[in-house]
Amino acid sequence: MRVGLDVGGTKTEVVAIDADGVIAGRVRMATGWGPDAVTRTIVDGVRALGAEAGIDLAAVRSVGVGIPGQIEPGSARVVHAVNLGVDELDLAAAVGPQLGVPVRVENDVKAAALGAFALHGGAGTMAYLNLGTGVAAGIVAGGELWRGARGAAGEVGHISVDPNGPVCRCGQRGCIEAFAGGGVIAERWGRSGALPVRDVFDAADAGDAGAIELRRGLARGVAAAVRVLVLTVDADVVVLGGGITALGDRLLVDVVSELGASAEASAFMRSLRLEDRVELLPAGSPAAALGAALIGAAHDPEEALAHG
Amino acid sequence: MRVGLDVGGTKTEVVAIDADGVIAGRVRMATGWGPDAVTRTIVDGVRALGAEAGIDLAAVRSVGVGIPGQIEPGSARVVHAVNLGVDELDLAAAVGPQLGVPVRVENDVKAAALGAFALHGGAGTMAYLNLGTGVAAGIVAGGELWRGARGAAGEVGHISVDPNGPVCRCGQRGCIEAFAGGGVIAERWGRSGALPVRDVFDAADAGDAGAIELRRGLARGVAAAVRVLVLTVDADVVVLGGGITALGDRLLVDVVSELGASAEASAFMRSLRLEDRVELLPAGSPAAALGAALIGAAHDPEEALAHG
Predict the structure, then answer these.
(1) Alpha carbon B220 to chain centroid distance?
(2) Which of A31, B106, B128, B241 could crosslink B111 through cysteines, CB 3.0-4.6 Å?
(3) Proportion of chain B above pLDDT 70, given as a percent
(4) Helix ranges (DSSP H) in chain B
(5) Of the candidates A137, A171, A265, which has its C-beta nearest B265's C-beta?
């Protein structure tokens, strides 16, 4: 049995998977704020799998954690997890001794990419595009995450696609994230709500010009990211996940329509059939928690042997 | 001994490498036009290694060919090599029996990427950006070409970076190639010359406004491709090759200056140190021929064992 946690800004999702990678138990809880509370959330989350989901904790062999921050390569040290109030935290040291099993840590988008790959059948090349507060991708081929040289792989949100576009929080102009980041859209929309992007879509449907522009920008940004991912790494499929994808088909229809526009203009783009290669992560899929569990398993020498 | 050929639109470069990958012989010849003449060029090229470079042809164990066209996956069938007058040609069938050794074929940019990786020391992750008539990249990690799902990997030339940019030959607007493709630049410059881009640079130095705009566009396009490659696959280094790089440091200085502008605007981009990660392929390096030789070697079961 392997445990994976997706430690989000407000809630933490915990899953246990069996030796075949099938989810055997799943719980959710609120995420604490700051290093100590995050550590406690993880320990409590694993224990809750026993208490609430009937998982035999003595059978757990590894714990993987997906977390919204940078991970120092080759370590379990999280830095700059600003949404969790964590500046620096060595999770292996903090939770390993309490849990008594090896602990592995991965950036949450990369964990979700691995989980989405497994949920999708685990074959070929996939790009997972996370549409949350920011925009970032994870690339998986043959079950392995593409890590790149220095941790910038998948940072497609900061590719500029319009020199006259809006200024991005990173300082450049016209970044994909400046069009499609949930944080930017909420800020520009300027009204509170549980999911501001949904309000933007509703207002756009009702004819609000500002909302129509924001909604169009979102679709343009996502379509640009899909094109970047296919024209660079030639992913079989680009799976969209993250908070904004709660909009479901309303989002997908817009994105497919943008992709259709470039296909109409270009026989080359048409030949890539991008509209058929973009998909939504099924609603409610615990992709990041599943991916985190797989990361824990991948580092176990016995497991690595068993899976060749 | 392995032989590799870089079959270009006007000339063909042929190299022989020894078991350590060191170049033991090198010849150049004119490329014929059409399938029969291309076949003859390859056969003559290999024989010229014996006659002109003193290579023992009996010791040649494989021939690899880099060619400017699409290669059908898993085959030696070249399609749409328009610059060679070849619509379709199975090179293994055409030249294999005459040469008596296995023949492997690869797209020339991908072959050059492998060769550039070997010339660069053969470690880490590299993107090779080819600046010729068109713009395309090859991505190499741990000595392996990233192939992607359906042959579109590295087609960064057709990523649009400006919705109001010039119309690309592919039909989209503002593609990287519409700014940085040698074909497009020559067409817009509209005056004949051996290397129109050099004339553009000279005219820009002399203050010609049209030339200054074309030159600026080239640097913008190349810088955009470098950003795409680092922000997607996080290559350690982006090596620039292809005909336009005959401009050498005049080109590199412009590109580094464009990269510097985005670094100035963005702490995030600054942290990537892109100016330090972009390099020119050394002038005269037979990267594509060397890469083609390595591709021939990689498919030999004995060699694969020897190299682990």
Answers:
(1) 20
(2) B106
(3) 97
(4) 35-53, 91-99, 108-119, 176-180, 182-189, 196-205, 209-233, 249-265, 267-272, 274-277, 287-298, 301-306
(5) A171
Amino acid making up residue A290 = L
Going by the DSSP 8-state scheme, the letter that residue A160 receives in this structure is B
pLDDT confidence of residue B300? 59
Share above pLDDT 90 across residues of chain B, in percent, rounded to a whole number: 85
Q: Which residue spans within chain A are E strands per DSSP?
A: 2-7, 11-17, 23-30, 62-67, 70-71, 77-81, 86-90, 103-107, 125-131, 135-141, 144-145, 237-241, 278-280
Is A231 in CB contact (< 8 Å) with chain B? yes
The model's pLDDT over A77-116, given as tens digits with 9 standing for 90+, comes to 999 888 899 999 999 999 999 999 999 999 999 999 999 9
Q: State pLDDT tens for residues B115-133.
A: 999 999 888 999 999 999 9
Q: How many Å lie between the alpha carbon of B134 and the closest alpha carbon of chain A?
A: 14
Question: Which helix or strand (DSSP H or E) is residue B81 part of?
Answer: strand B77-81
Determine the Cα–Cα distance for residues A290 and A55; give it in Å rounded to an integer: 15
pLDDT category of residue B83 using cuts at 50, 70 and 90: confident
Residue-wise pLDDT tens digits, B215-259:
999 999 999 999 999 999 999 999 999 999 999 999 999 999 999
Both tokens of B160, joined, read: 């649009």
Mark which residues 19-48 of A lie under 8 Å from B by CB.
none
Say whether pLDDT at A158 is over 70.
yes
Residue A160 has which token pair? 């500029």
Q: What is the dihedral of CA A15, A98, A110, A217, to 10 degrees?
A: 80
Per-residue pLDDT for B307 more than 60?
no
Contacts of B37 (CB under 8 A, 6+ apart): B31, B85
Tell whether the torsion through CA atoms of B108, B109, B110 and B111 is positive or negative.
positive
Question: Which among A159, A164, A171 has the least Cβ separation from residue B227?
Answer: A159
Q: Is B198 exposed, middle or buried (0-12, 13-18, 19+ CB in 10 A)?
A: middle
pLDDT of B188 > 90? The answer is yes
Cross-strand pairs, B175: B160
How far is Cα B9 from Cα B23, in angstroms, rounded to an integer?
Answer: 23
SS3 category, A80: strand
Report, in angstroms and rounded to the nearest whole number, the Rg of chain B calculated over CA atoms.
19
The rounded distance, in Å, linking the Cα atoms of A43 and A270 is 50
Domains and CATH numbers, chain B: 2-112+285-306 (3.30.420.40), 121-280 (3.30.420.40)
Q: Does B272 touch chain A (CB under 8 A)?
A: yes
Query: Structure tokens of B122?
Result: 């053969």
Give the pairing of strands A237-241 and A278-280.
parallel
Cβ–Cβ < 8 Å for A129, A222: yes
How confident is the model over B62-70, as a mean pLDDT?
94
Determine contact: B121 vs chain A, CB below 8 A: no
CB B210 within 8 A of CB B248: no
Residue pair A53/A286 in contact (Cβ under 8 Å)? The answer is no
Taking the C-alpha atoms of residue B215 and residue A204, their distance in angstroms, rounded to an integer, is 41
CA A196, A110, A90, A300 torsion-angle sign: positive
The Cα–Cα gap between B4 and A53 comes to 60
